[in-house]
Write a structure and sequence with these properties.
462 residues; mainly alpha; globular; 4 strands
């Protein structure tokens, strides 16, 4: 991987750009997605009033708070982002798509390639479905909804994938990718295949299969709560107002992230360029999500015999308002970091380097803001039982949780630094971004820069 170099006298200088590198996604993508989401949220919440205004007989039905309405809200968020990406940013023209729109090979020239890729794609989907069917936790609780939804969508995906693949391969500069390599391994056993490309293909679809099911499973709950909660309850006291604002910000994060996991498409330049090849990166990420999660009842649960900020600050409305404002600001940064990705959000993958929004201030705004919100919101140093021993244990465990996210950040950087674009961004951030400069000033340590020496295990970056 690229080497981190401390500035030294007489050493060959590392080039540091004075201007922030261009982001792979424009700020407008996230903004229109947010507008679409909020427009639908308001429409769903006040559906009975809207129906009455339009003279529609709504009967005794209330707001549109069901799971299907929640999925419609994901569409309301995603469609504007797609339209902005295509018609304003014109992402389909980016060289990184691997598509040459002026090229239309004859059908006969790419038919065998497309059929081979379809074999690889359908086999991959079959393997993912087998994992879903085998792992029991996918069929209980919140996952039950996502499994039902994916089951209903699967036949349509199989149908649409045929014309999509036939249409796309005629225009691809190089249609023989990891999906093709896997398909070739299936249909032509004994023939030489690109094992490295197959590995990338499996890693990319493992990310998509794991996180898409998870994101779809958590969409309905938060959406329903925000649509149905009475505003009188929201405004009852500063604590409830703060909770409502936090849930709204988490709704933004979940919806835009869900769109990102779904739209890994080359024509949108949102495909997975590379998936993280380092095993420790996968361990660090997966322990933060069910069923592998170590927090929330696991060995790193830092809230045993604890309570949140509302409990400890009860009766002090001014302090609750200030504390809530800090929490809302932190989660706003967290959601803003997700918004910055537009349709490209995804864990464990490289889908373009993001440099705008909160990424202009630090390389890891989501991790920093999320962890600070846990410290501020849970107040682990205070407990309802167990005394100072339990409090010390909770503090130590939350330190370990923050350490896990530091580990995640480092393993992600190890992956992304294989792309020269990220190395340029790293050097710019070290020299100009607020957080690295503040950290260097407080610690008195020099800020390491990057000398690029690509890691062959990561693979080519489009």
């Amino acid at each position: 991987m690229p080497k981190l170099t401390m500035p030294a006298a007489g050493a060959e200088p590392v080039s540091v750009p004075a201007k922030r590198p261009r982001s792979a996604v424009s700020a407008g993508v996230g903004i229109v997605g947010l507008m679409g989401l909020f427009a639908y949220l308001l429409s769903a919440r006040y559906a009975p009033d809207i129906a009455a205004f339009l003279g529609i007989d709504w009967g005794d039905r209330g707001p549109l708070n069901g799971p299907n309405s929640a999925i419609a809200s994901v569409l309301a968020c995603g469609v504007p982002m797609v339209l902005w990406s295509v018609f304003v940013d014109k992402v389909h023209r980016n060289l990184s798509t691997g598509i040459d729109w002026s090229q239309r090979r004859p059908w006969k020239e790419t038919l065998d390639i497309s059929l081979t890729k379809l074999a690889g794609l359908w086999a991959t989907w079959g393997l993912i479905a087998l994992v879903y069917a085998t792992m029991r936790f996918y069929w209980f609780g919140q996952y039950e909804f996502s499994m039902g939804l994916l089951g209903r969508v699967a036949p349509w995906l199989l149908l649409v994938s045929v014309p999509y693949m036939l249409w796309l391969d005629r225009r691809m500069v190089e249609p023989r990718d990891g999906c093709y390599a896997f398909g070739r391994w299936l249909v032509a056993p004994g023939q030489p295949v690109d094992g490295r490309a197959i590995g990338h293909h499996f890693r990319a679809w493992a990310v998509k299969g794991f996180f898409t099911a998870f994101m779809l499973s958590i969409v309905p709950g938060n959406f329903s709560a925000l649509v149905t909660v009475p505003m009188s309850e929201v405004l009852a006291n500063p604590y409830m107002t703060g909770l409502w604002a936090l849930n709204l910000l988490y709704l933004v994060d979940v919806h835009i992230a869900t769109v990102g996991y779904i739209l890994t498409l080359k024509p949108l330049d949102a495909h997975i360029r590379t998936a993280n090849p380092y095993g420790m990166a996968w361990v660090a990420a997966l322990v933060c999500y069910p069923p592998f999660i170590l927090m929330n009842g696991g060995p790193l649960d830092y809230q045993v015999n604890g309570a949140d900020w509302g409990y400890w600050l009860e009766g002090h409305d001014t302090l609750i308002m200030l504390w809530g404002a800090v929490l809302v600001a932190l989660i706003a940064v967290y959601s803003w970091a997700t918004m910055a990705f537009g349709i490209r959000f995804s864990n464990l993958t490289h889908r373009g380097i993001i440099t705008h929004g909160p990424y202009a201030f630090t390389r890891h705004p989501a991790y920093i803001s999320k962890n600070l919100s846990w410290w501020v919101g849970s107040m682990p140093f205070l407990v309802t039982a167990g005394g100072w021993v339990e409090a010390a244990r909770n503090v130590a465990l939350l330190c370990l949780v923050s350490g896990v996210y530091y580990w995640r950040a480092k393993t992600e950087e190890k992956h992304l630094l294989a792309d020269p674009a990220y190395a340029v961004y790293w050097n710019w951030a070290q020299a100009h971004a607020f957080v690295p400069r503040l950290f260097a000033k407080l610690t008195g340590r020099p800020r390491p820069l990057v000398r690029l020496e690509p890691d062959s295990r990561v693979g080519p970056v489009a």
